[in-house]
Amino acid sequence: MSADNRPDTRWGLTLPLPMTGIKQLKPLVMAAEEAGYDDIWTGETNGPDGFTPLALAAAWTERVRLGTGVVGVFTRGPVLLAQQAAALQDASDGRFVLGIGASSNVIVEKWNGFTFEKPLTKVRETVEAVRPVLAGERGPGGFKLEIPPETAPPIYIAALRDKMLQLGGKIADGTFVNFLPISALPHVTEQIQIGEREAGKPEGSSDVVCRFFCIPGDEDQAMGIAKFVLAGYATVKVYEEFFRSCGWGDALDPMLEAWNAGDRVKALEVAPVDLIREICIMGSPEQMRDRLAEFADGGITTLCLTPLAAPDQVPTLIRDMLPR
């Protein structure tokens, strides 16, 4: 912890890596720990679930922190979340972080058939239900873990909009943000600090994790991939609302109009490059490190990197993105 209460900067890596199966992860995970990464964080969209890669990484590593970044609260009940968290905390010798979030209407409703409503309430109630169980107490319906973890794992909340960011600062041990324009960073950290103040925590003491899509090569080479990534996120309602709240609605409208009309080619052509430049990390490893340092200076305390490159480029890129 630094003198101003802010946690020291940590460097993390996302699993699974793009275009890399679980069976291919072991040497990459071991190399990342050896290179100096502090964290491994999983996602949960259309690849593996959020827990399985971490269970394997727990056996492959000795030092790195292992976090779900993040798993949804609508598609798992609080008891199952607590069971999975307790198992990984045990398997990793206390290195696990349970990152949870509301996810999106696409994943919750279209893919899994649940109702996506009152996400703020659902996240808050899940934290309130899971935390006592992980501490060895009774939870929903009288459930109690047979063997609770020796130390309860921290709980992080994924957040985009103000109320969820404030909730992260207030009741969680950390907040996980994603697809963050650098111009919105001061507002995002301010909202987390509002929650910290409400809870009587030191301002700026929370861990703030942000996932970054890192694309090597010059901008002309990287922009095509970056446009594809942005379109995949910004056309989902929760992200569209987030970007509009950040002042990017007018810039997004041409892309959204084309996308909703079914013209994917045009949507990519008119994707807002200024927004992409604020979000994606592009260029040489040195340029990427410099850009990431700007986010760290602005209040991101854990930099979670998702390298978007050909599989044969990934091992070198993982190493080269770390500070020298």
Automatic annotation (TrEMBL):
GO terms for molecular function: oxidoreductase activity, acting on paired donors, with incorporation or reduction of molecular oxygen. Residues 21-301 form the Luciferase-like domain. Keywords: Oxidoreductase. This is Unannotated protein. The lineage of its organism: unclassified sequences, metagenomes, ecological metagenomes. Pfam families: Bac_luciferase (PF00296). Gene3D superfamilies: Luciferase-like domain (3.20.20.30).
